[in-house]
Amino acid sequence: MMNLSSTTMAAVAMLMSLLPAVEAPAPKTAAAATATKPETIAELKPEPKAESKAEIKANARKEIDKFFASNGPIPTLSFNFSKPEEWEYLKKENRRYAECEMTDVEFPEKIWRGVAVKLKGSAGSFRGPEDKPGLSVSMEKYKKGEPWRSIGKFHLNNGAQDNSYLNEQIAGEMARMAGVPASRCTHAFVSFHGKDFGIYVVKEGFEPDFLAHFFKKTDGDLYDGGFCHEIDTNMEKDHGDPADRAAIKQLMQACGEGDVKKRWEKLDQILDVDAFLSFMAMESILCHWDGYNFNRNNYRLYLNADSGKFVFFLHGMDQMFGDVNAPVIRDSGSMVGNAVFSNPLWKAAYRDRVEKIYTDVLTAVDWPSRVVEEGKKVQAALAAKNPQLGKDYQGQINSARDRVAQRIAMVGKQLAMAPKPPVFDAGGVMKLTKGWMGVDGGGGNSRTDEVQIDGKRTFHIIAENSSAMSWRTTIQLLPGKYRFEALAKCKGVIATNDAKGRGTDLRVSGNQTKAEQFLEGDSDWKPVSITFESSGGDAILVAELRAAKGEAWFQAESLQLVKLK
Predict the structure, then answer these.
(1) Residues 311, 335: one domain?
(2) Range scoring the smallest mean pLDDT among 39-43, 293-297, 465-469, 537-541
(3) Distance between CA atoms of 81 and 278, rounded to whole angstroms?
(4) Strands of the sheet with 299-303, listed across from one edge
């Protein structure tokens, strides 16, 4: 071993003090010893950023979309009341929320606590808490509540008025395809406070997630029409400032405006008229007798925050397709519907809207097959629980399929028969050769018939005694001034003169204007006409003979309507 002198040791110490300090390396852990050092800076990955509120909402809505579009197993939900006082409270105040817990068989380790539930339904569908009740479920009403499958609120319909459990689902799909807001639906098995109540319809609530499908902004005012209430009642406001009712008052005032032109201007400012036409068309097409336009029931009303105009939502569609022969083109009994239909242009646009929905929605999809597709899913789930239930359900599938098919066919038939708005040529003339019907207003041998004279088709009237017999047709007119004209001849006409007309002439039923020309006695072919003003709507055109005796003929090819302005 080498021994260093004290002088040498001092020199080494002095040299070491002049060198830069070097930290001793930290001892390597097992993890550090096995880690691989990145070769470039680009390989260093930043920490993931926390999701923004907008991203969380967007992802939640994707999950909701996935749930309602799923072909997976039908969920099984169980609602239990661990607090006896909450169950007693629900039995006494069943229209108010009570607190319970909920489980979903697909998530066996999970219990949703603080779930708010109340009973729902009206006269036909309401059932008590121990008799398969319809339920409204809010997952986040109480503190620490959690959404179920990203859904904050939903409804469970008991099928009391729809044994197929398919009406609202299929009707809603049709409505959304036509651009009319309606909730999506699927199915679930439900047990409630220890009782297994079987299959239910799961329906999404009218929440921001629902509104986001139809509107850019979801913070507008949302009103619940309630049970058989018009918009002029004190409707419940589900979203928005409860004290602010300026917009709904504006809509009511517009509907009640006495001056029709001002009414239409005011309506157009506060109501999305185009959306309302589609809404009313779908209520008619779906046979929704218990909706807004025909019973002032089952609807929601939303003030679109972008346009500042109201939009109606379909709701309560468990009794759809019931009367397959119901008229698809008919007047509304509602305040808003009547106000809209008072405008002939909007009324004509309604007919066009029904025809467009028939073409673009009803005949564009094989809806009877769609009914069967969804019905088979329910049937399979029922059969898995009880094979007999699955067999019995087949009749419900068949019945729902047939109702939908028959309704679509009837809508097409009614549209083919319905009078269409007149189409004028470039000269403002529309020929009226079709759609005429003879109307007998006399007795004895008085009659109407069609005959050929000189190779020309004519509408013929014979009066053997005092009568007012006619040929009539109905057309739809837009507001304006018109001249109704034809070539006529008569023989042996002894004219009678009253407030409506005289001899062989033309007139418009309900219009006080008299014809410019009339024929009596014996006359060869001569023109007859009447010029009149129309405020729009249906017009009954009349070619008549008012006489004690005689004959008259109207040349079919000469009957025409001329638009003057």
Answers:
(1) yes
(2) 39-43
(3) 43
(4) 236-239, 222-224, 299-303, 310-314
